[in-house]
Structures are given as C-alpha cells and as structure tokens.
What does this fold into?
Amino acid sequence: KNEVEQSPQNLTAQEGEFITINCSYSVGISALHWLQQHPGGGIVSLFMLSSGKKKHGRLIATINIQEKHSSLHITASHPRDSAVYICAAHMYNNNDMRFGAGTRLTVKP
Amino acid sequence: NAGVMQNPRHLVRRRGQEARLRCSPMKGHSHVYWYRQLPEEGLKFMVYLQKENIIDESGMPKERFSAEFPKEGPSILRIQQVVRGDSAAYFCASSPFGTRGTDTQYFGPGTRLTVL
It folds into this structure.
C-alpha cells in the first residue's frame, strides 16, 4: 500500500462543475502539498498545508490531521484546469517528500 | 524575480555517457531539492541540498548519481555512465528556508533526459 493515496485516478468533468480530489496518507507529516502538473510537464505548487484550510481563487485545500486526509476542491471548473493534480506529503522530521500517483483531471467545455 | 531555472530542458545521451543537469534556484533561495519522475510513474524525492552541503540524499541511487550545490553557481545533478533506465524527467525545486517541509517549494520546468 502506498503511503500517499489519491482518488480518483482520473476525473472528467463538464465546465462549471465542482471538483473534489482526495488524498489520504499513512505517515506522520510536517506538511502536505498540492501540486499541479500541466500537459507540458511543468509543475506548479498550489498549496502547502499543515492544518485547516486555504483558498486561492477558485481553489480550496483542506486538511484533517487526525484523519490523515486532505482534499483539493475546484469551484466553477474550467478547461484550463485540466492537468494532473498531485498530493505530496512532507515526512515529519526529515526532508523526504512522498508523492501520490496523481489525479488526471479533464474539464470539457 | 525569475523562477527556478533548469537547463537543459531536454538532454539526449547514449548509454555510458555522463549527464549533467543544472538548476538555478529562485533568487534568495538557498535550499534545493531534486526529484525524478520516471515514465508513467509518480515523482520521487532524490536529494536535498543547501549551499555547499548535502542535507539528505536518502533518495539518491547509491551508484552513478551525485549532486552538488556550490557556493557560487547552480546546483548540479550528475549521472555517470547513464543507462536506459535513467530516462526520466528530473525536477528541481527551491525554497527560501527549508524548515522540514513547512516551506513552499517552487518547481523548475524539469529536464527530460532520454538515454538511447
């Protein structure tokens, strides 16, 4: 079993829909990161969370430390949101980062 | 403020050659991380460096791979005697403080290494 599990693996949505991507982890972490990887391969760091909730534009990320679970939400999805979203858990007490396999999101116009 | 820069963006090497991948962190960032993304696989941590120091190389293969971050100049990931299995995208990230992960990392565009 992977230490960082994401679901779903693939997600297709219609423009305007509300999107949720889930991430569960089984290790002690100091922070959890959400990353976006575009079809060209470039990676953008969206959020870094250690507790609670963060919002940036149409993106919202939440984390529940007790349940070891984080979610990334996209409101009013748009085709330009199409990308792979990756959850990454920064291991507690060292510098290792464990990555989920990614969720491939396709938003259709 | 320029972002993290990596070069080359694409690198083709024949088996047995050496590959040198460069990463220039964002201005003011003294912490650099290298990650590898094998085809159809997720990202994996390789090494974490501060200026002139390797802090954590637990993700580096034991042989042929080395990394440095000199006082002046970019961080270098060096792969000696490349094999086909080294073909991957190599991403570098930087952060200003590097306090055990509680610091946003900014990623470079990656170097795509192809070994023929």
